[in-house]
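writing this on my phone so excuse typos. first protein, seq and then structure
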Amino acid sequence: MPETGHALTVLLAKGFGLFYLLALSVGVLIYTFWPGNGKRFDHAAKSVLRGEDRP
């Protein structure tokens, strides 16, 4: 019987991990393509080219 307990634990861990990573990926995609974040990303992309961080 110990094998069934281990198999159940592995199955639950894999299922939880799958749904966790899927939810995390969807959350990142929603954050990335949210219309209000466009200015923030444009500023971050252009700030590298401005040379503000000089020694």
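second protein below, same order as before
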Amino acid sequence: MLKLAAQRLVALVPLLFIVSLLTFSITDLLPGNPAELIVGDDATQEQVDLVHERLGLDQPWPQRYWDWLTDAVQGDLGTSFFNSVEVTDAVLLRLPVTLSLTLAAVVVALIIGIGAGLIAALRPGGWTDRAATAGATVGQALPNFWLALILAVVFAVKIRWFPATGYTPLTESPTEWLRSITLPAIALGTGAAAILARQTRSAMVGVLQTDYVRAARAQGLSSRRVVLKHAMKNAMLPVVTVLAFQITVLLGGAIIVEQVFAVNGLGSLAVTAVRRQDVPLVQGVVIVSVIVVVLTQLVTDLLYGYLNPKARPS
């Protein structure tokens, strides 16, 4: 396991280099001039040129990328073009919000998805199986932004059980944090729950028909013990693989959900940075997002190795 972790962390270095190079190149091709956005429409060309030079945009992009890279390897991701805030500080301030939302959505997906898939697999072809399958189909078809709007109207505006907008940090009030994160997490995690339900149902139906499960039942073991102790572990192998991909999807989907509920996470920060052509801030968001995704994949691989000893590196 330690060897696998070391290999993934080493491979992260060239990956970050390639991602940063591509991001820097693409943002350089965007139309418009950040200096014009900073000084405003009433500024003279001389003022625009002065800000353009101050930001270093008069330099060729290979030189600008090299300057950024030499600072980035030392932990300095630069300074925002618009408010002179350190990019590292801005990203780290918003990162816990997005991670909190994503983790809460994962919990929602696991509880609903695995629960529904397990119930459906225990009686394949029955009414619970058909209901779970229909629910999974609907859950996959619902756009998360539409579901977020419906949840906000019903449970925030009409019933007023939860706040419609905003985010309360966990350190300030666990109760208010839970209230502020519930609706966004449900909106974000429903689609992943539907996919996990289908995968869990399919995997469990196959495992429950294997010889070792039949042998366990023939020995007089209870159905609960057979399912939870013997069948569940093997059935979770494909589910873990799907979950790893879904976490990446959830990180991307958080951008939209954050906009609906006015949650100030990485999503809203990224949208603002792109609109303003704030290249250092865009770079910072992308780099940190890549690191989070790679670490998530690493944790998933370690979990997969725990569930399946044959997949562990020698």
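The first helix runs from residue 2 to 28. thats all i got for now
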